[in-house]
Design goal:
Number of domains: 3
Strand content: under 5%
Largest sheet: none
Shape: elongated
Structural class: mainly alpha
Distance between the termini: 116 Å
Radius of gyration: 32 Å
Order of helices and strands: HHHHHHHHHHHHHHHHHHHHHHH
Number of strands: 0
């Protein structure tokens, strides 16, 4: 049996340069050692030209968080060389986690200048998106079958993320969701950690992260009813972004029936929040992402009934989406009814849509013009009368095209009589040669 001294000597020979620790090696421990060595060298060089007072004040430009993302991060990516594409992706995933941790450490140690905060947040978000891409590209089933111990080591290393500052708790759970869904999907691991968390909860321990993790483990086991039950038991409000991540995962996996369950579960939440739609950009962004998932469900399953029902329930904020849907399925009459209900005049309607309806069923658009003309006349200004005459000319063309000249004549007589006391309007009718 080899002595420990002999093992150390062999390792020193095998890894005579730090980079060899990340060249076709199957060890997260070695990768982490390389990261630490590389960061120590990187930071030492940066610190040689740094004024500590300026660094603390956010005035120094020779070492900022930007350098971590722009210099340190790509250096780690470029150092790794692997024959197996999935192990290369797993290495990239750990490089990205390492970079996130270094960014948060920089923030905690030196702070972020106010004018740089938006840039810092955008960098973190960009890195989080790149993590999702790496996980999606990875063939986790193959990786688990061929390198289960490596993935298990990766899971243990993932726990280091739990040390990130509480202000980034939403990001921590996002990484938890995507990692446990796309990489650590071994059922026995999920059941083991779920059991452990349930025991902690029974012992009196509680936190939002624990509650959400239990929801996600139910989700990962495809026990959606249990996930909904656990969500209902959660006293604290669950951020909408977490719901959208669960739905995004289902879309990517094309689990359409499960997606519908989550869409319907969330519908009351969005209905209750309709009032905030016009006042908060986040509410609008979340809602339109929700709409997009509903549309993807309808596209891939052909079940458009649920989608249309949802669009109707959320009117008027779904006006454009519902109008587009009706145009796609060729329901021109119902499309016209929607414009009339919303009180839209021809100027506010997309020209291509109006043109398409006119080319198929000219008669169906008559209510839009009738309503618009009536509204303009009742505004009782010279300008509104002139606009009404403009629409009357278009209306005359439509009536003549469908061979209903007499109906149009009767219509003109009717409005001329009803609004006979509006002298200015009568003048405009004469100018337009509608009456003598």
């Amino acid at each position: 049996m080899k002595q420990p001294e002999e093992d150390d000597e062999r390792n020193r020979t095998q890894y005579d340069s730090p980079e060899k620790k990340v060249q076709n090696t199957h060890s997260v421990k070695l990768w982490s050692e390389y990261f630490s060595e590389r960061f120590e060298t990187f930071e030492r060089r940066k610190m040689q030209t740094v004024s500590f007072r300026d660094l603390a004040d956010g005035k120094d430009t020779s070492y900022t968080f930007v350098h971590i993302y722009r210099d340190y991060y790509p250096a780690l990516l470029n150092a790794g060389q692997f024959f197996d594409e999935d192990i290369a992706l797993l290495y990239r995933y750990h490089v990205q986690i390492e970079t996130l941790i270094r960014l948060f450490s920089f923030e905690a140690q030196y702070g972020i200048a106010t004018y740089m905060q938006a840039n810092f947040d955008a960098t973190v978000e960009k890195l989080s998106d790149q993590i999702y891409v790496a996980l999606k590209e990875m063939n986790s089933k193959k990786l688990l079958n061929e390198n289960k111990k490596l993935v298990e080591e990766s899971l243990r290393n993932f726990q280091s993320l739990y040390e990130i500052p509480p202000k980034w708790g939403y990001l921590l759970f996002y990484l938890f969701q995507i990692s446990w869904s796309l990489l650590y999907s071994e059922r026995t691991w999920i059941e083991k950690y779920e059991k452990q968390l349930l025991e902690e909860k029974e012992s009196g321990k509680t936190s939002q992260m624990l509650e959400l993790a239990l929801v996600h483990f139910a989700f990962a086991r495809q026990q959606d009813d249990l996930a909904f039950e656990r969500l209902g038991q959660n006293d604290k409000k669950v951020e909408m972004v977490h719901y959208l991540v669960w739905m995004k995962l289902l879309v990517d996996k094309q689990e359409w029936e499960r997606l519908l369950s989550w869409l319907l579960y969330l519908k009351p939440n969005f209905l209750d929040g309709v009032s905030s739609y016009y006042y908060h950009s986040d509410a609008r962004e979340f809602f339109h992402e929700y709409l997009n998932y509903f549309w993807k469900y309808a596209q891939h399953t052909g079940d458009e009934e649920q989608y249309e029902e949802m669009l109707i329930e959320f009117l008027p904020i779904t006006f454009y989406e519902y109008g587009e849907y009706l145009m796609v399925i060729g329901e021109h009459e119902r499309w016209v009814e929607l414009q009339v209900i919303m009180g839209y005049s021809p100027e506010l309607i997309q020209r291509k849509d109006l043109k398409e309806v006119l080319s198929f069923e000219k008669e169906t658009v008559l209510p839009i013009y009738h309503q618009t003309i009536d509204r303009l006349i009742n505004e009782r200004t010279r300008k509104s009368y002139q606009s009404a005459i403009k629409h009357l000319k278009t209306l005359r063309t439509i009536y003549f095209d469908i061979g209903e000249e007499e109906r149009f004549s009767q219509y003109i007589k009717q409005i001329a009589t009803i609004y006979g006391r509006l002298r200015a309007f009568q003048e405009e009718l004469r100018k337009g040669k509608f009456i003598s």
